Amino acid sequence: MTGITTGGGLVLPRYTREDAATRTPVGFPEYRSTGLRAPLRTPVDLPHRLTEVTGPVLGEDRVLAQDADLTWRNGGEAVGQRILVHGRVLDSDGRPVPGALVEVWQANASGRYRHVVDNWPAPLDPHFDGLGRVVTDSLGRYEFLTIKPGAYPWGNHHNAWRPAHIHFSLFGRAFTQRIVTQMYFPEDPLFGQDPIFNAIPAAARHRAISRFSLERTQDNWALAFEWDIVLRGVDQTPFETEDDGDVA
Question: Which among 31, 73, 86, 113 is annotated as catalytic?
């Protein structure tokens, strides 16, 4: 991040733009639904304004501690491998972003969402809704206890299966500083045939993959995966430019 001095002497931060070579395209032919929702013209990067670094903040009193534990819902425990997903939310200059709202949604252990349009023949779990949220602490840290999601078919092409993943939505220091993205798990055998993952330029794909952490794995309880999220700049986490409610 660099600074800009206005005519009145106010110094505003300017975010370093992500390298175009590592930016995920909004249209990717192998991901067929982007043909219907991608813009017809090249997106225009708007200049940075004061509203990008100031504005409404999210009150922590609206997010409860139990919102970060996805393994216990409706009076019972979810089925599947418990995992601890943790990391930091960072700005373009590597500084932690405190007070950021981090929301997640995911399929259950059998690869099915609790969603009206997901009706493939995999069991639903009455004690798993796949939804969680947390606010980052003063060091930009977040943490979820959840169930490792299963793979699922999605009809994009013949024998198409999505790799295991968790959807993330993040608000930074203001509502204009937001990304929607997906976190993947290391060495997934389905990476090679998944057009959503492969829409990310090869040089940036590692940013979307979590790292197994034996240090944070909890003995006799849960495996741990670490994933840092960079909101802006040259090391920005790959993200979706449009959120149309698609559960894929």
Answer: 113
